[in-house]
Design a protein that fits this description.
- The chain folds into 3 domains: 27-159, no CATH class; 165-259, NAD(P)-binding Rossmann-like Domain (Rossmann fold), CATH 3.40.50; 291-483, no CATH class.
- Helices cover 47% and strands 16% of the residues.
- It contains 17 helices and 16 strands.
- α2 (27-54) runs antiparallel to α3 (69-86).
- The longest helix is centred in the N-terminal third of the chain and has 31 residues, at 129-159.
Length: 489
């Protein structure tokens, strides 16, 4: 290597070579990869040990030879760990957020189970079906739990501002400002907007002062400055500029991320096909009728029925406390607007004084006269007991009865009253394409801490991209929000 390449200086996580800096991945990425492998090894090894305890004799191969259990267990563990690696389930991009990591763990496990079944037939392995089932089920559960625990640790570090990839945001000022705000609100995504390269100015767009600015003509130099581990490109760059930037980043450790031009369209709805050099992005349009909705309705009925049965003691206790508090009605009933604008009656535990509805118009006028998502941080109508019920979302529990009656779903947009719907724009009316929910993206992403536009955008995103698996994820997150309440008033 020439003399000009011999001298290296480490500056802020970058290695300077011949006057050019190359981004060097921080040490935590290597440690995390090792931790993921060790977690998989430990989880599957525990399942293998459990299975070995049930099978107390060697495994026969081809009806004659026998293989000691420790060797069978070692092959079982290593084979499964390799299968999880083959599906790239340990990709660091998947660790913090989303369901893709768990899907890949499930895919790798299914592939391994199929391979194990084929090997058992070909080699005539004499294995008990019970042992086979115990090994696979316990291994899968252990691997998923292990990944979930790692995710909790990683997300905790990212919330504290650690284990984040420094990111350069590229695009017009308004889109860049919105993306920077989104990244700051969702640190679990793993990216920290440290720099911006604006391709066009926009009035009213505010970029935080601590974000480093780079001139538009120095985009490639900024991306390769060694300061950033990722480049996120918004709209504003034409195809030639994006292609040129990709060429500049070739053979570098910098990750390039393109934001889809279709706002709020989730990844599963996008499919890319290549037709003789022509890249086509296919978008599955949202469906609001048919079999998918019947599955959702069936899930709602089963889940709500079980919830009402299991929560019956809680219902009786809360009803008694409300009666003892002020002697008024236990249940608050109110007409809300449901799917396709059809009104229905919502049921909640009463948390306000008896004449709360008579005071609402005056309160709205005192706060500017806007009814859409009207909310007061310190609402004078809320009783002392009601404040506690709201903090832990206990007042929402009777809504499971509204789900049984068909007006609501377990997961969906926030149910709103007619005065709020009267202020809808055409865009807002899309919230009424599906039934409102007891919980939803709005509720688990900040609740009352979110602005009106952020709340509506999350509801619209759910309407466009809902799925049963997504509903289950929101329900799990709701439990966490209830246990650790934030943004509720």
């Amino acid at each position: 290597m020439g003399a000009q390449y011999a001298e290296q200086a480490v500056i802020g996580g970058a290695v300077r070579l011949s006057g050019v800096q190359s981004y060097r991945a921080p040490a935590w990425t290597k440690r995390l990869r090792v931790v993921l492998v060790l977690v998989d090894l430990s989880a599957i090894a525990a399942a293998a040990c459990l299975t070995a305890a049930l099978a107390d004799e060697p495994v026969e191969v081809l009806g004659a030879a026998t293989v000691p259990l420790p060797i069978v267990a070692a092959v079982f563990v290593l084979g499964w760990v390799v299968a999880l690696g083959a599906t790239r389930s340990r990709s660091l991009r998947l660790v913090g957020a989303g369901l893709e990591q768990y899907r890949r763990v499930l895919t790798g496990s299914v592939c391994f189970a199929c391979g194990l079944g084929i090997a058992a037939v070909v080699l005539d392995l004499q294995v008990s079906p019970l042992c086979f089932a115990v090994a696979l089920s316990s291994g899968l559960v252990s691997a998923l739990v292990g990944r979930w625990l790692v995710r909790r640790v990683v997300v905790g570090r990212r919330i504290r501002g650690e284990s984040l990839t420094p990111t350069l945001v590229v695009g017009p000022a308004n889109q860049a400002a919105e993306l920077i705000a989104d990244l700051r609100r969702r640190p679990d995504a793993g990216y920290s907007a440290c720099g911006v390269c604006l391709q066009a100015d926009a009035p009213g767009a505010t970029i935080p002062d601590q974000v480093r600015h780079h001139p538009a003509e120095q985009l490639a130099a900024a991306a390769l400055s060694g300061l950033y581990g990722a480049v996120m490109v918004c709209d504003g760059l034409d195809g030639a500029a994006v292609r040129s930037l990709a060429w500049e980043l070739e053979n570098s450790p910098v990750e390039m991320i393109l934001l889809p031009r279709l706002a709020d369209v989730a990844g599963p709805r996008l499919q890319v096909s290549d037709v003789e050099g022509l890249a086509l992005v296919h978008v599955d349009l949202p469906q609001f009728s048919g079999r998918k909705l019947w599955w959702k309705r069936g899930f709602d009925l089963i889940f709500s029925a079980l919830a009402l049965i299991l929560l019956l003691p809680v219902f009786l206790l809360v009803a008694l406390l409300i009666k003892l508090d002020d002697g008024g009605p236990v249940i608050f009933r109110q007409e809300r607007i449901g799917r396709n604008g059809k009104p229905f009656v919502i049921h909640k535990f009463r948390t306000m004084c008896v004449d709360a509805e008579a005071q609402i118009d005056a309160l709205i006028q005192s706060c500017g006269g806007e009814a859409l998502l009207f909310k007061l941080e310190h609402d004078p109508r809320v009783t002392r007991l009601g404040a506690m019920l709201r903090r832990y979302s206990i007042d929402e529990l009777p809504q499971f009865w509204s789900v049984i009656r068909g007006g609501m779903s377990v997961v969906g947009p926030r149910p709103q009253v007619s005065r709020e719907v009267a202020e809808y724009t055409d865009r807002h009316y899309r919230r009424l394409l599906i039934k409102p929910g007891i919980t939803g993206l709005w509720q688990v992403s900040g609740r009352s801490e979110l602005s009106m536009e952020e709340s509506i955008r999350l509801d619209l995103r759910y309407v466009e991209n809902w799925s049963i698996m997504g509903d289950l994820t929101i329900i799990v997150k709701t439990v966490r929000v209830v246990v650790l309440p934030s943004g509720a008033f």
